[in-house]
């Protein structure tokens, strides 16, 4: 049996303090990201949010001047590097930014570039940002990576194959990273979100939960060191996917 060598940054992991952290949240100008930003700010943390829309970020700044904002296109590797260089004190990285396009692959009006944009935002950029941020995180006595995935990464819906594939990818990658980093001071969490009432889901779906409801459930799991956070209806989805996969697919396949 091969003995695992501890990383020099290793110390026995204790619960991460809920205050006094420096938190970087991608896609923090609205929806889940904004609710997370507000929660961490209320708990007396330094909060940095990124977004592509300068106007939305300015609106957040007007409401909560303490929040630091950065206009950032996460599909650009140079932008990611600049973020990392600018904020070396970050000890909690939250990969929340995401986009979803619903379309039929046979539709000739759909350009192939959409595929790359979705994969870069939802899967490639989070992994690149983690890779770039790791040297800083490894030097922190307490650190965390929190990836936001989706129940659609477990059971897909027919109209969003790329989105579902990207979320399945981040789900599996998060598990593997958790194993790789288990001998370091970094904890790796995953928020497996149900359908949430955000600008991305506007006009689609039923039975949505609010971003605040998701964050309240996340907070309980976070302080309890529950690394894989199954939020809301994703608890039932896990059960169905494991024991009754055909029922789970029947429920989610026609989702809009």
Automatic annotation (TrEMBL):
Gene3D superfamilies in UniProt: NAD(P)-binding Rossmann-like Domain
Magnesium keyword on record: no
GO CC annotations, alphabetized: membrane
Keywords: Oxidoreductase
GO molecular function, one term: 3-oxoacyl-[acyl-carrier-protein] reductase (NADPH) activity
Pfam families given in the database record: adh_short (PF00106)
InterPro entries: NAD(P)-bd_dom_sf, SDR_fam
SUPFAM superfamilies, alphabetized: NAD(P)-binding Rossmann-fold domains (SSF51735)
E.C. number: 1.1.1.100
Name of the top EC class for this enzyme: oxidoreductase
Family: Belongs to the short-chain dehydrogenases/reductases (SDR) family.
Name of the protein this chain belongs to: Short-chain dehydrogenase/reductase SDR
Species the sequence originates in: Trichormus variabilis (strain ATCC 29413 / PCC 7937)
């Amino acid at each position: 049996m091969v003995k695992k060598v501890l990383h020099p940054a290793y110390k026995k992991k204790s619960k991460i303090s809920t205050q006094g952290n420096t938190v970087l949240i991608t896609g923090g100008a609205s929806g889940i990201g904004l609710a997370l930003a507000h929660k961490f700010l209320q708990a007396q943390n330094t909060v940095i949010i990124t977004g592509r829309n300068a106007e939305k970020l300015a609106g957040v700044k007007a409401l909560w001047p303490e929040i630091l904002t950065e206009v950032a296109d996460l599909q650009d590797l140079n932008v990611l590097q600049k973020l990392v260089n600018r904020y070396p004190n970050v000890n909690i990285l939250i990969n929340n930014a995401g986009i979803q396009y619903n379309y039929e692959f046979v539709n000739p009006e759909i350009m192939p570039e959409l595929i790359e944009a979705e994969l870069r935002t939802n899967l490639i950029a989070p992994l690149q940002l983690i890779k770039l941020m790791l040297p800083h995180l490894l030097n922190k006595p307490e650190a965390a990576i929190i990836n936001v995935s989706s129940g659609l990464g477990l059971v897909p819906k027919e109209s969003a194959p790329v989105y579902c594939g990207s979320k399945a990818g981040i789900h599996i990658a998060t598990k593997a990273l958790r194993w790789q980093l288990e001998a370091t001071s970094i904890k790796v969490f995953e928020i497996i979100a149900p359908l949430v009432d955000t600008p991305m889901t506007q006009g689609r779906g039923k039975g949505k939960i609010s971003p605040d409801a998701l964050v309240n459930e996340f907070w309980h799991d976070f302080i309890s060191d529950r690394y894989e956070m199954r939020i809301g209806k994703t608890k039932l989805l896990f059960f169905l996917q494991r024991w009754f996969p055909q029922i789970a697919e029947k429920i989610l396949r026609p989702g809009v």
